[in-house]
Amino acid sequence: MKKLLPTSTAGSLPKPSWLAQPETLWSPWKLQNGELIEGKQDALSLALYDQLRAGIDIVSDGEQTRQHFVTTFIEHLSGVDFEKRETVRIRNRYDASVPTVVSAVERQKPVFVEDAKFLRQLTKQPIKWALPGPMTMIDTLYDNHYKSREKLAWEFAKILNQEAKELEAAGVDIIQFDEPAFNVFFDEVNDWGIAALERAIEGLKCETAVHICYGYGIKANTDWKKTLGSEWRQYEETFPKLQASNIDIISLECHNSHVPLELLELIRGKKVMVGAIDVATNTIETPEEVASTLRNALQFVDADKLYPSTNCGMAPLSRRVANGKLNALSAGADIIRRELATK
Ligand SMILES: [Zn+2]
Questions:
Q1: Topology at the third CATH level for domain 33-341
Q2: Disulfide-capable partner of 274 in 57, 138, 284, 297 (CB 3.0 to 4.6 Å)?
Q3: What is the distance between the terminal CA atoms of the chain, rounded to a whole angstrom?
Q4: What are 240-296's pLDDT values in tens digits?
Q5: Residue 250 CA to ligand 1 centre (angstroms)
Q6: How far is the CA of 341 from the centre of ligand 1 (A)?
């Protein structure tokens, strides 16, 4: 991007109420068959329009065609039995009934490639596409086949690489992998998590990003955050290896969080998507609040590598609040662009 401080979102945007129950994760679809396909495309167009109207530079599909950022991808693979469920602890935080890996996992056909082509023909803006990361995928499944988290992650990395290559061919400019699990399983991240991520991006020519956050503003996450103390230093555990990795962009939670921003010094040289919008509150940030977070981040991120963004996805928010936050993000980035221009 030639424009300084190009804005983007971490991923999801709220779905219209005619498509799915608003302000709910895993919300069931309200349409069926052909109407559902058309409805998802209409919602994608609307999500794009909302981003363009707010002046967001790097746009996405707002994840309008997915029920959930991990599950929907896995549903498209063979080897996972969604009828056979076991209760597991997700990210050491909450119990959930999850599907079981019963045989070798495989991607028989593309998952999001048609959706990406649809988005591509609607806009000339750079587009970013989010996929779940390998470690976050294995953490939402019960594995009765590989019986090794590392092996299963490696298989998913190979599958993600196939999908990513087709997304790149469809014209996606940035492919992002969502890895909230990187903030939890530090030993595994350093042992094989980052290696698996690098396997997922192998051979890609487009830019690649990893999104590591403290999650949606749902109760299990806000309760977990309360246990983390006054300084959140989780990023410190994984930044040194990420700094040395082939990933181009690191997308992080920064606004209203207890992450000490000086940790960003550990990834100096990487492009950083700085979360300047809190997705766990309905309060819409003022442009000056966004600008203040970006100004602080500029101490540790070079201006040409700073990408203002949101802390995480905005799917659980109302459309009114999400649109307000998109406007604030744009206006806040504009304040800093003007400041940099007069320096
Ligand atoms: Zn997130």
A1: TIM Barrel (3.20.20)
A2: 297
A3: 21
A4: 999 999 999 999 999 988 889 999 999 999 999 999 999 999 999 999 999 999 999
A5: 12
A6: 31
